[in-house]
Design brief:
Length: 76
């Protein structure tokens, strides 16, 4: 399942979730402010510090609101 790492009060996180919801894409939301292990995974394993981070089941993990990459997930 697609994972979207977010934090509270994050406009770009909400934009990503809105695009996924409007295209009926199933995903899991992981709030890094509430899940310390998820924060550790993003920072120490993936070396990512910008949210949201989108982790598809297959393919490239990316961060931020990137419409082209989101469309690539939707059109699979």
């Amino acid at each position: 399942m697609l994972k979207v790492y977010t934090k509270n009060n994050c406009p770009k996180c909400e934009m990503v979730k809105n695009v996924l919801n409007s295209n009926e894409i199933e995903y899991a939301t992981i709030n890094v402010e509430e899940d310390a292990s998820a924060f550790d995974y993003l920072v120490n394993t993936l070396q990512m510090r910008q949210l949201p981070v989108i982790e598809p089941e297959e393919g490239e993990i990316f961060s931020g609101f990137d419409p082209d990459k989101l469309n690539g997930l939707i059109n699979k």
